[in-house]
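INFO worker-7 received task bundle
INFO bundle size: 2
INFO processing item 0
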Amino acid sequence: MKQYLQSYQISLRTIGPVFVGSGREIGKKEYIFLDKKRVGIVDSSALYAEMVKRGRAREFEEYLLKNRREDMTVWLRNQRIPERELLSCVRYTMDCGDAVLEKGANRLQIMEHVKDPYGSPYIPGSSLKGMFRTILLADDIARDSKKYAVIKSAVKGNVLRGGYRNSYLKADAAKTESMAFRTLRKNEKKPSDPLNDVMQGFIVSDSEPLETKDLVLCQKVDRHTDGREKTLPLLRECIKPDTEIRCTLTIDTKVCPWSKEKLLQAVDRFMEIYHESFASAFAGMEERNDGCVYLGGGCGFVSKTVIYPMYGKQEGLPVVQKIFDVTVKNSRQHKHDRDREYGASPHIIKCTRYQGQTLQMGLCKIEKMETV
C-alpha cells in the first residue's frame, strides 16, 4: 500500500531574533538588572518570601501596590539589598543584547515570548504553519495570475473605495484564501467551509523546546530606506540569532498537493518577490533567497501579506499605501503619504540591534528538511 503521509524534520536557523508573543508583558517590577549585560526575571512568590525573611514584607507590599515610578532595581538599591543576594529569587536570566535600557521611572515593559508549561520557550506549530500558509498563497498567486485576475480587480476597487479599519478587506482576503486552499469539495454547497481546506493535510508540530539561555532582550528598531535608524521604546524577549529551531511537518498527500520540492521552491519565490518589491529599496539590505523565511511577530506588513505577489511593486506600492491610509491611525504622521517618494510602502523595515549589527526581525533559514 502506498504511503500517503510524508513526514519531514525541519531545522530552521535564526538569522535575526524571532519573537512569538505570549500576550503578556513583564512589568518593570518583575525584572532586575544583575549587571550591564543581564536581566533577571523575578519569581514574585520567592521574592516575597525573601522580603518576609528580611523583615521587609510591609515595604515590599507598599512598593508593589502604591509606588508606580521606581523599577525593581532602584527599589532594591534604596532598600540597600544587593541584586546578587537575590539570585535564588530569579526564575531565569537573559542577555540584554544591544537594548538601550533607561533606568528609573522610564524603564520599559518587556513583551514576553511564549513558553510551554515547564517555562521553556518554543515556537508554536500555528506560527510555523501560518508562515508556510502565507508563502504557499503568495506562490500560487505569483504562478497563476490569470486565476486571480477577477479578485485582483475587485481588491483594487475595494482598496480605492476605503472602508472601516477593523473590517477593511477582510472579505477579499477570505475569498483569496478560499480560491487557493478550499478546493476539496467536501461541502460543495458552501465552498468557503473549512472542511474544504487542503491545508488540513499540512500538519506542523510545535518546535522542540528551547532553553531560556536561548533568549535575548531585543529593542525595536525602524530602518528607513536611506539607512537611517530609529530606536523605539519597545522591548521583546526573542529567540537569539544562530539558534536552531526544530519541528516536524507531515503532509497528507491525499489532501494536500504540495511536495517537499514545491514547498522549497515556494519559499525561494516568496523571498524573491519580497526583495524585488520591498527590501531592495532599503540601503544595505542584501537579497536572501537561499531557503530564508520570516517567522513570528514584528517582521512587518510585507512578510505577512500577499499584496506584492498579487500586484508587483509598481502597481502594488500605491495599493499598500492606500491600505495604510485606512488602517493606520494618524497615517500622515507616520508619513505613509510619502511612501511612493521613498520607493517602498511601508517605507520602514523592521529590525533590531544585536552584537553591533542591525538585523531583520524574524529572518530564518531552512537548513534541513529531511524525511523521517
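INFO item 0 finished
INFO processing item 1
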Amino acid sequence: MMQARHVTQDRPLVLIVDDDSAMRDAVGELMLSVGMDAIRYGSTRELLAEDFPDRPGCLVLDVRMPGISGLDLQKQLNARGVTKPIIFLTAYADVPMTVAAMKAGAIDFFTKPFRDQALLDAVGQAIDVDLRQREANAQARRNNELFSSLTVREKQVFKQVAEGRLNKQIAYDLGISEVTVKLHRGNLMRKMQVRSLGELMKAWATLSQN
C-alpha cells in the first residue's frame, strides 16, 4: 500500500485497488496531478484491513484480482452500509458484469486502456455524490441529536404531525387541548431548528426512531 502525499482532511481522497502496480501508480499520479490525494492498494484484502478514512472521495477498483474481486468488494461494502462511490476498471469487460456493477451502485465502468480525462470526470462525479451523501448523513446525525432533546409529549406530537394528523385530532388522541398541541408544535419546531412543516417532515424522515 502507498499512502497519499500531503494529506489534508478537506482534500478529496481516492482509494485505488489494483493488483497491477503500474496501473495503480498511474491512476494515483493522475489523481495527484489534479490536487486529489490517493492511497494505493495491491489487493482488496489490504483495503479491508484498514478503516475507511473519514474524507470525501471514492474508490477506483480493478474488477478481476486474486482473492476478493472488485465486484465482491462492492457487495461486501454494500452489506456493511458503506456508501463510498465506486468506479470500476477492467481489462476484460462483459455486459453482465457491467450491468451487475451498475445495478449495485457503481458510478462508472471503464475498460483498460481508458482516457485520463474520462476517468477524472467520473471521479469528479463520484466525489460530488460522496459530498452530498456525507452532508445528508451529517444532517441526519444532527436531527437525531435534536430529536433527543424533545420531551416525551413533544415526541408524541411530532409523530402524529408526521402522520398527517390535524391539531384537533392530535389533541383528541393525546387527551390534551388544541392550544396545548399548538404550543408543543411550536416548541418542537424550535428545538428541531425548522421553520416550516415541509422542513419538519424532512427531518422526521431522517430519524432513526422511525
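INFO item 1 finished
INFO post-check item 1: The first strand starts at residue 13 and ends at 17.
INFO post-check item 1: Residues 13-136 form a domain with the Rossmann fold fold (CATH 3.40.50.2300).
INFO worker-7 idle
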